[in-house]
Amino acid sequence: MASVRVLVVDDSEPVRTLLAQALRQHDYVVFEADGGTAALRVAFDVRPAIAIVDQWMPGMTGAELIRLLRAAPVPEIRAMAIIGLSGRSGSERDLLGAGAGSFLAKPFGETELLVAVRAALGASGAAPASGAA
Predict the structure, then answer these.
(1) For strand 50-54 and strand 81-86, is the pairing parallel, antiparallel, or unpaired?
(2) Is the CATH code 3.40.50.2300 the one for domain 5-124?
(3) Is there a contact between 124 and 117 (Cβ–Cβ < 8 Å)?
(4) CA 53, CA 104: separation in Å to the nearest integer?
(5) Is the pLDDT score of 1 beyond 60?
(6) Which of 9, 16, 105, 122 is the most buried (most CB within 10 A)?
């Protein structure tokens, strides 16, 4: 079984790197984007099963990105599971209101990340990654 494709969107390279490393250790195939425009290109190219999106990025907020993904002309992209991330208060409401299925408040641990990813994939009907415990 092929591993699940995950798109990680955050303007902070250290955050993207930590998220990507944690997910790759559990056999997820990770694609990274440093902002909304790049994330849209990646989403249309690879059609990931899930996106993990930071709220506060230059140029386009996570909520704006989520709205664009939810309005995409491609059914797989519209149906993609999305987890919103932020460390600022009020972001949870904005991200969930835009169409994120769940929210993680920064800082969070690897276990919280993996639980949220598995729950989001289960809710979307996507198969979990092989080898993920």
Answers:
(1) parallel
(2) yes
(3) no
(4) 10
(5) no
(6) 9
Q: Copy the structure tokens of residue 66.
A: 């989520």
Per residue in 36-86, pLDDT (tens digit) is: 999 999 999 999 999 999 999 999 999 999 999 999 999 999 999 999 999
Q: For the chain, how big is the Rg over CA atoms in Å?
A: 13
Residue 30 near residue 20 (C-beta atoms within 8 A): yes
Q: Which residues contact 90 (CB under 8 A, 6 or more apart)?
A: none
Of all residues in the chain, what percent carry a pLDDT higher than 90? Answer: 86
Give the model's confidence band at 126: pLDDT under 50 very low, under 70 low, under 90 confident, else very high: low
Q: From CA 36, how far away is CA 129, in angstroms rounded?
A: 25
- Distance in angstroms (rounded) separating the CA atoms of residues 43 and 24: 18
